[in-house]
Amino acid sequence: MGGRAAATDLELLRAHVTGDRDAFAELFHRHRDRLWAVALRTLGDREEAADALQDALLSAHRAAARFRGDSAVTTWLHRIVVNACLDRIRRRQAHPTVPLPDGNRAEDGTGGLEPAAPATDHDTVLVVRDALAALPLEQRAALVLVDVQGYPVAEVARILGVAEGTVKSRCARGRARLAVLLGHLRPTAVGAPSARPDHAAPMTGVPGVTPGNPGPVEGVGSGSGRYRRDANQEDT
Fold first, then answer.
1. 126: which of 11, 15, 42, 220 lies 20 to 30 Å off by Cα?
2. What is the pLDDT of residue 96?
3. Model's pTM, two decimal places?
4. Residue 111, CB half-sphere, CA atoms under 13 Å: how many?
């Protein structure tokens, strides 16, 4: 077990391909927190996020032999998770009669990953979630990764498979839309940040959208967490 813990992500993925039954579980254990957070904040609903993450990991499990090594393993995993989320959003939009749960229900095994907001902030959280959901898919994905999760633009470009300038442009357009949708949430006291849209920097004063992760991000690192499903999935 100690050997697996010391192995790199690439070594674990290769071990999985060659038949090590526990290697992929170790890889998932390392990165499940951030993968779960991306799925949850992209979809805005715990049940949908749990299903998307399981689909994504099943895809990654099956497609591991096709991993070419032209990006970090974590970048590859995040790309699969984002694609699984966007696929779910597209299917949901194609069937708009399906109601959306409130996204704040506690579920077995997911406790502690994103605690429910305090009662006083509940309405604000819902407003921010709905505003993110109103964005075009590409803008939403870019903002979740850059402004909410705090990943570097260069890493997000690799995850999404687009140029860095495209990520910046999507973020700027998304922030401008959110500035309009969430302008009433901005502080109005003297010395508070201006309410005008800022196309160059992440929005401030808007709960749930900024400031991203407080600590430094090395590539797309991960801690440990409590996601309830051991799953597996396929590169798209």
1. 220
2. 61
3. 0.67
4. 4
Give the list of residues 6+ apart from residue 118 with CB closer than 8 angstroms, or none: none
SS3 content of the chain, % helix, strand, coil (to 5): 55, 0, 40
Instruction: Kindly state the tokens that stand for 19.
Output: 């038949």
| Euclidean distance between CA atoms 181 and 218, whole angstroms | 32
For residue 58, the cross-strand partners are 233
Token pair 């689909």 is found at 55
User: What is the rounded CA–CA span in Å between residue 191 and residue 22?
Assistant: 54
Q: How many alpha carbons fall within 13 Å on the CB side of residue 82?
A: 23
pLDDT given for residue 130 in this prediction = 86
Burial class (CB in 10 A: 0-12, 13-18, 19+), 47: middle
Residue 233, strand partner residues: 58
Residue 5 — pLDDT band, cuts 50, 70, 90? confident
Tens digit of each residue's pLDDT (9 = 90 or more) over 52-95: 999 999 999 999 999 988 899 999 999 999 999 999 998 888 86
> At 208, which amino acid appears?
G
Q: Is 20 exposed, middle or buried (0-12, 13-18, 19+ CB in 10 A)?
A: middle
